[in-house]
Amino acid sequence: MSDVEQLWPGGPVLRQAAHFRLGTDCVLLADFVNTAGAANGIELGCASGAAMLLLLVRSPKLCMTGLEIVPEAAETARDNLRRNGLDARGSIVTGDIRAHRALFPAGRFDLLVCNPPYFPPGSGALSADRDRAAARAELLCTLPELCAAAAYLLRTGGRACFVHRPERLAELFTNMSAAGLEPKRLRLVCRDTSAAPSLVLVEGRRGGRPGLSVEPALLLQNLDGTESAEYRRIYHRDTSSVPG
Question: Regarding the domain with residue range 4-121+128-234, which homologous superfamily does it belong to in the CATH classification?
Answer without folding.
Answer: Vaccinia Virus protein VP39 (3.40.50.150)
